[in-house]
Amino acid sequence: KAGVTQTPRYLIKTRGQQVTLSCSPISGHRSVSWYQQTPGQGLQFLFEYFSETQRNKGNFPGRFSGRQFSNSRSEMNVSTLELGDSALYLCASSLADRGTDTQYFGPGTRLTVL
Amino acid sequence: DQQVKQNSPSLSVQEGRISILNCDYTNSMFDYFLWYKKYPAEGPTFLISISSIKDKNEDGRFTVFLNKSAKHLSLHIVPSQPGDSAVYFCAATGNQGGKLIFGQGTELSVKP
Q: What tens digit of pLDDT does each residue of A51-103 get?
């Protein structure tokens, strides 16, 4: 079974631009969660989508948004990029109908904001 | 407010010996705990998990222990191998589906 895939793997943007990242979950997984990893803050939860609905949201500003499609693929969007948005963005998928399902991570998208 | 803490940023162990990585949590609503291994610029790889109804779970060289009264879990790796060198994260979740709270990670170095 193929793992979680994320595209693109690397991205360079400038301040004020917007960016869209894509995540394809493991086949059969219905939940997709997004995380941001930075050296200072570690791994932080952004949001989770299940059956095309945002089920959970972390403490990030409204510039960070996401969506999920009927095939469970998910995208996250960051508008008006700031230097501090430079990070590794990870998505994870799980079978999910319970909070105790194991999440499996993709390789991440490295975003650099100049 | 850090709900999951890994107080040791790094750990160095000799090959063949036991590695013990520790994790503490504060939220008593957490009922599922996971350990992930991570290399730089890659996604975390799932290692092992434990439900709050258990106090021990084993998978090959990896064993996770959970002490609910102390709100403490640990990952034991026996025997340690150089390929185990990586950053290890513990994570916890409760009834909020799909939301993992991570510790800050412990960098394990296994010396040949």
A: 899 988 999 999 999 999 999 999 999 999 999 999 999 999 998 666 567 99
In a 13 Å sphere around the CA of A46, the CA atoms on its Cβ side amount to 27
Most A CBs within 10 Å: which of B3, B34, B99, as the mutation test of the A interface? B99
Residue type, A34: W
Question: Do B98 and A107 lie within an 8 Å CB cutoff?
Answer: no
Residue whose pair of structure tokens reads 């994790």 in the numeric block: B23
Total beta-carbon pairs less than 8 A apart between chain A and chain B: 80
DSSP letter (8 states) at residue B48: E
